[in-house]
Backbone:
């Protein structure tokens, strides 16, 4: 089976990720590891994680995504989620996963604007 | 087997793609189709295609990449390649595929700058 990795793009001091596959457990764990390494090696201060193409998530994936935000935060990088679909937002709330401190935005452009604003406020 | 698709990010009027898997024939063809659809639906005027993580390409993939540039051009979108590795550049030249009219740049940031310049010149 082919190695499934989610590409992480670096643009200026930010990392951009667009998740365009349904995440299975292994892909999600691999992504978590890849993202943290990339933050470390690039010294990125912000991450925009676009979930526009993700239709459903389960509790494991939701936890991985929640964790990666806290982990990135510890490493000094702010994560913004964009394009969270209605079904995904319902799953997150149903599961009791409140991404309360995580800024969200409609799309990649808005996410970058929000990230810039968040980082300026610091 | 899992459906392998290369994510295409839209940022302002541009599309950004970072190829972070070794391209097999099917993935490359799927990518060609996805990119053209995305240009059509988004009305993007430019595409940055980052090949930093591609170590080797064969003649089929090289042809697909060359074709996608011409196809995108017909649809009104300019393609810039970034991060072409030494081995890949050698393969392209050895195969007689001269991407002469295709602008190239070192990385994503430089690619976006080049794209902006190319589009302004038109």
Residues:
């Amino acid at each position: 089976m082919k190695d499934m990795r989610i590409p992480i793009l670096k643009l200026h001091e930010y990392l951009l990720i667009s998740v365009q596959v349904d995440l299975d457990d292994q892909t999600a764990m691999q992504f978590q590891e890849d993202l943290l390494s990339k933050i470390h090696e690039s010294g990125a201060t912000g991450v925009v994680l676009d979930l526009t193409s993700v239709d459903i998530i389960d509790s494991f994936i939701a936890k991985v995504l929640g964790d990666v935000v806290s982990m990135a935060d510890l490493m000094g990088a702010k994560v913004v989620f964009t394009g969270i679909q209605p079904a995904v937002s319902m799953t997150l709330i149903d599961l009791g996963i409140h991404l309360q401190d995580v800024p969200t935005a409609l799309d990649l452009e808005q996410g970058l604007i929000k990230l810039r604003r968040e980082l300026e406020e610091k």
Remarks:
- The interface with chain B takes residues 1-12, 16, 18-21, 50, 53, 107-109, 112 of chain A (CB under 8 Å).
- The beta strands of chain A are 9-11, 14-18, 46-50, 78-82, 104-105.
- The longest strand of chain A covers residues 14-18.
- The mean pLDDT of chain A is 89.
